[in-house]
Design a protein that fits this description.
With 231 residues, the protein is of the alpha/beta class. The chain contains seven helices and five strands. The longest helix is centred in the middle third of the chain and has 80 residues.
Length: 231
């Protein structure tokens, strides 16, 4: 090969290289030159790591909020269950109270009815009526007058609360007092227990025109034994 031919080939190669370089530079997607693109750049790695760390932080925060929400939900559930239990307990107490009140009203009504029946029966009957301690207590609770037929000393030693003393053995000394009392009112005569003076006094009062006289046969002894109100 002559020198001229070799020179021409070299010129052609140079021209091709120059044209190729110019074309690559002007191309929208140029090809990298040898060694180009191998420069290490951690900027994206750092930004991606930061983004990942932020994502982890957000996830941890979300998990924490989720756990807190679940705990709050459990607390609200327990509180609601406690409120339900309290409401049920209140309802049971109210129901029990209502039943007790209804029972007391029923008992009071029976007592009132018994007293009305007894009073109606006695309106036209002069004969005194014998009664036991339960009915005597019901009459006491209604505020009716008890009369102690025992001697004054026995009365002073202990008597039914609110009772007046009219000893049968000294009836004449108290006749004027009896005559001034309302003969249509209810009276309960009593003595100790195993005695007759309450019976005698009751019949004496009936003869004087008293229409509603009761004889409490248990008397002071039974009344005091039961711990009922006393003087």
């Amino acid at each position: 090969m002559s020198k001229r031919t070799a020179l021409e080939i070299a010129v052609i190669i140079l021209i091709v290289l120059v044209v190729g370089i110019l074309y690559n530079i002007s191309s929208p997607q140029p090809l990298p030159f040898i060694g180009e693109g191998k420069n290490i750049d951690f900027s994206r790695s750092d930004s991606l790591l930061l983004a990942l760390q932020k994502q982890d932080s957000i996830q941890k925060t979300a998990d924490s909020l989720k756990n807190l929400s679940m705990k709050r939900e459990d607390s609200l559930k327990l509180l609601n269950e406690q409120r339900i239990q309290d409401s049920l307990m209140t309802a049971r107490i109210q129901d029990s109270t209502k039943r007790v009140n209804d029972s007391l009203k029923a008992v009071q009504k029976r007592i009132d009815d018994s007293l009305k029946t007894a009073s109606a029966t006695q309106q036209d009957i002069v004969k005194p009526i014998d009664i036991k301690v339960d009915f005597a207590k019901a009459l006491f609770d209604k505020g009716y007058q008890f009369i102690d037929a025992r001697d004054e000393a026995d009365y002073s030693a202990g008597s039914i609360k609110g009772a007046i003393s009219i000893p049968f053995h000294h009836l004449e000394d108290h006749r004027k007092r009896l005559e001034g009392m309302n003969k249509d009112a209810v009276y309960i005569a009593y003595c100790s227990s195993a005695c007759d003076v309450s019976i005698d006094l009751a019949y004496a009062m009936a003869k004087m025109g008293f229409k509603k006289v009761y004889i409490f046969h248990g008397g002071w002894d039974e009344w005091n034994k039961l711990g009922y109100p006393a003087n």
